[in-house]
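Notes from the pairing session

We agreed to fold both candidates in a single pass and log them together. This is the raw record for the first candidate, unedited. Please don't reformat it; downstream parsing expects exactly this layout.

Candidate A
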Amino acid sequence: MEPNGILIFGELTNKCGLRPVVKELITKSRELKTKLWNQKISVCVIGPRIKYDDIIKELEEYGADEAVIVNDDRLKDYNTIYYSDIFTQLALKYPPRIILAGATYIGKEIAAYTAAKLETGLTADCTDLSINDINLLVSTRPTFGGKLTADILCKTFPQMATVQEHIFTAEKTQNKSNINVIFNWIDLDKTENKIQITERKEKNSGHRSLSDAKIIVSGGAGACKDDGFSLIYQLAQRLGAAVGGSREAYERGYITKSQQIGQTGTAVAPELYIAVGISGANQHIGSITNSKKIIAINNDPEAPIFNYADIGIKGDLFKVLPELIKKFD
């Protein structure tokens, strides 16, 4: 069967709602399919036996043409073997031209497994996707520590890519049509499952999540001294904000991995992003571009971050932050 269409891994949250990255990938795929003879966009959702009406409605609102749902009570908790095998089977049954997944812990795992099983290439952590003149997927990702970007072509099918959450903007379609829904039964008894989940615990990092934060105060190399991050936490507390930071801040122990923003961390899309002592390297900028407003505080007037900021404060953060904190006391 000739590969056709775009297949997206429809990852669910722990509460069985669509992860934001799924809607973002559908939105981007609507753009891609205009250059692929309007081939269909299919979303594969794997999960427990629940009502999928709300999920199907969301998929339709964002422009998916087809929802392929596999539900079984054994799929309530994520299981690498089950999920990866199911997704691969569906990719073989309905061979797509392109496969996309979020660059989440689960999405990356499933994409890698599927690419290996299908003997095709996979471009990870992309910052853009496009279709070239010969109708191949062009996957753009940072390289050389974020100083450059590379356009990568995969000449085997399906062409596969993962994209971080919040890199693309999710937008509902204006041309909504009825979605085709397929409930696909797969015999899990035929899958050799070597994983047994004995206990599940929610991880508590002690920090506010970046993924749904409306305000983020983030520190870079300039804040990695004296009480720089202490001031950042004080300001964040007064604003009800989450705290993030650059790769250097993580490597120097000022933040946890879950707080790292950038190419090797996470992408964010808050209402307000306050960058404190962050120079604005490409790998960081690419992960904050969907922020509604950016305020940059830096003592280097030539810092690249000012080219992307809505408001720039050129000054010593150790003088600026205490004044801001006073304003909210």
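Candidate B (folded immediately after A)
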Amino acid sequence: MLYPQKLTSKKSDTLIRIFIGISVVIAIVLVIINKITTPDLHWAALVNAGMIYAWVTVIYAIHKHTNIAAHVMLQTIGVSCLTVYIDYKLGFQGWSFDISIPIMVIIANITMLVLTIISHKKFLRYAIYQLIICAFSLGTLFWVYEGIVHQKTLSYIASSISLINFIVTLCLCAKDVKEEIIRKFHL
């Protein structure tokens, strides 16, 4: 039986460069088509932003020592930035702050809770990322008080879920955290 050849690191890097090159050509062609057909509507910028986001995600995911919690955090921040950009390019209706970011925060918190329940022994690896997601979700409350957010319900729900998730995680992992502190500081 013949098995397919394993891709070496050098071959995979070459393939990635080729595909990125193709993506750059596609991006340039899209900008040209956009300028010729609909110069008033900048849809090529939206497509190219999505393509850049996809490549950042792919390159990040290829790294072998990626912490899944870091990946969740970066995806949350990346998709949130992408939706704000799309909202801005479409005339800024505010849906990115009202709907998109709170939903991303809710999904990130549910994902972090599932990760904590499934592998609570690795909580310390996830803790800093969970804190960042919690701080990011508190940013939604800041946007409410600054008047950026008009539909406040999702922002309140996202912040509440984030706070509850953090408390539940601490309760589930308090013993592990205590043991780790004792071990690290020789108490």
